[in-house]
Amino acid sequence: MKVIKFGGSSLASAEQVKKVIQIIKDDDKRRFVVVSAPGKRASNDRKVTDLLIDLYDACITNKETFATIDAIYQRYAEIAAPFGIDSAVLADILESLQTLATLPITDNSYFLDEILSAGENNNAKLIASICQASGIPARYINPKELGIVVTNEPQNAHILTKAYKKIYEWRHAKEILIIPGFFGYTENGQICTFSRGGSDISGAIVARGLRASLYENFTDVNGIYAAHPGYIHEPETIAELTYREMRELAYAGFSVFHEEALMPCFQASIPVVIKNTNNPSHPGTQIVTERTNLERPVVGISSDEGFSMIYLSKYLMNKEVGFTLRILEIFRDFDLNYEHMPSGIDDLSIIFRSEQLNEETEEELLRKIAYEINPDELRITHDLSLVVVVGEGMKQRVGSMAESTAALARKNINLEMINQGSSEVSFMFGIHKEREKDAIRSLYYTFFE
Ligand code: ASP
């Protein structure tokens, strides 16, 4: 049995929903369907979730809400139009949207969550009716009834382990269940959403709870590309990669799938496949626990900009007990999250996202390090990009690092930092952000063509 999830772009219009209906019909193992709210129909369009945020803003600033409610309602009405569904369904959606504007605001930490959840909740009701009108025996189910119990952190819920047992009880449901993504209920029965893009998380939770054989995640690309299509013309789609590889790639910019959504499937060893609603016969990208085909050393190359690096060296540093601890304590005092800390015998670099510092805090930080650590050399570099080369196949193979550095050298790209983690699944280069595109290109053509 498979759990299938459709993202917002797959549900943005009646035309897209027709494809979704066909995809559900095509495979009778697709018994549990998780849906997002309607997304963008074109790049200049707005997601229903973003319109709901407008509604929230209007409510808390005491502004008129009619136009926004109508704009949201029209999105559902437009999707429903060609399917000939019962008019009561749309009336129900309109009423639920109008009710949002009357909810209590003061002392209600979940006000935004209640508003946001309406996007997927109404969509699940609508898609269930469209399924029925199209001859699919389906019904809407509320996440509370299904058992999605979450922590009480507004807009950042996490699943409670006990939820999985309850969800499992639905395994033999007679009808195909249409489940709204993005939210669950706290133990006190309060609606609470996951972080943005969280319908992926709902799908993964349902797949784990039901012990599904596969979690199919339908979106608007053929799968995960081996490199950013903005840098490489028509990059290859990765056929198969492991959770670990996916995690490494996602770290530096691969954002097809919500990062937190991998966890439940990883824990239960349920394979995930990313597929394209607009091209469903394409096999997509499969994420698995272990890969059998390791012929190619590298699966993907990703990159992200916006990093800074503090370098410090001190003679005989490695003999001082607690040296690193003291530096990290300073980072903690500045509420700074660091990403990497490659070190040598008497020196180390700390890499972190630049946005966490401003001119003033940077000066203070350097002053504090200089005062407390008394290094021989201390400097900070900005405008760094991290380029990550990922592949389990590199473990069995000699020379991947040599080939990579040679490729970068041919392009005259200066390496500010090299970091190979202990896993041997990836390594990382810190380079100036202006050379990011060249670096990705030279690495891609080294390993892929
Ligand atoms: N609709 C929500 C969002 O836009 C959740 C999702 O689509 O996954 O963030």
UniProtKB/TrEMBL annotation:
<dbReference type="InterPro" id="IPR001341">
    <property type="entry name" value="Asp_kinase"/>
</dbReference>
<dbReference type="InterPro" id="IPR054352">
    <property type="entry name" value="ACT_Aspartokinase"/>
</dbReference>
<keyword id="KW-0547">Nucleotide-binding</keyword>
<keyword id="KW-0418">Kinase</keyword>
<dbReference type="InterPro" id="IPR001048">
    <property type="entry name" value="Asp/Glu/Uridylate_kinase"/>
</dbReference>
<keyword id="KW-0067">ATP-binding</keyword>
<keyword id="KW-0457">Lysine biosynthesis</keyword>
<dbReference type="InterPro" id="IPR018042">
    <property type="entry name" value="Aspartate_kinase_CS"/>
</dbReference>
<dbReference type="InterPro" id="IPR036393">
    <property type="entry name" value="AceGlu_kinase-like_sf"/>
</dbReference>
<dbReference type="InterPro" id="IPR035804">
    <property type="entry name" value="AKIII_YclM_N"/>
</dbReference>
<dbReference type="InterPro" id="IPR045865">
    <property type="entry name" value="ACT-like_dom_sf"/>
</dbReference>
<dbReference type="Pfam" id="PF00696">
    <property type="entry name" value="AA_kinase"/>
</dbReference>
<feature type="domain" description="ACT">
    <location>
        <begin position="389"/>
        <end position="449"/>
    </location>
</feature>
<comment type="function">
    <text>Catalyzes the phosphorylation of the beta-carboxyl group of aspartic acid with ATP to yield 4-phospho-L-aspartate, which is involved in the branched biosynthetic pathway leading to the biosynthesis of amino acids threonine, isoleucine and methionine.</text>
</comment>
<keyword id="KW-0220">Diaminopimelate biosynthesis</keyword>
<dbReference type="InterPro" id="IPR042199">
    <property type="entry name" value="AsparK_Bifunc_asparK/hSer_DH"/>
</dbReference>
<protein>
    <recommendedName>
        <fullName>Aspartokinase</fullName>
        <ecNumber>2.7.2.4</ecNumber>
    </recommendedName>
</protein>
<keyword id="KW-0808">Transferase</keyword>
<dbReference type="InterPro" id="IPR002912">
    <property type="entry name" value="ACT_dom"/>
</dbReference>
<dbReference type="InterPro" id="IPR005260">
    <property type="entry name" value="Asp_kin_monofn"/>
</dbReference>
<keyword id="KW-0028">Amino-acid biosynthesis</keyword>
<comment type="pathway">
    <text>Amino-acid biosynthesis; L-threonine biosynthesis; L-threonine from L-aspartate: step 1/5.</text>
</comment>
<comment type="similarity">
    <text>Belongs to the aspartokinase family.</text>
</comment>
<dbReference type="GO" id="GO:0004072">
    <property type="term" value="F:aspartate kinase activity"/>
</dbReference>
<dbReference type="Pfam" id="PF22468">
    <property type="entry name" value="ACT_9"/>
</dbReference>
<comment type="pathway">
    <text>Amino-acid biosynthesis; L-methionine biosynthesis via de novo pathway; L-homoserine from L-aspartate: step 1/3.</text>
</comment>
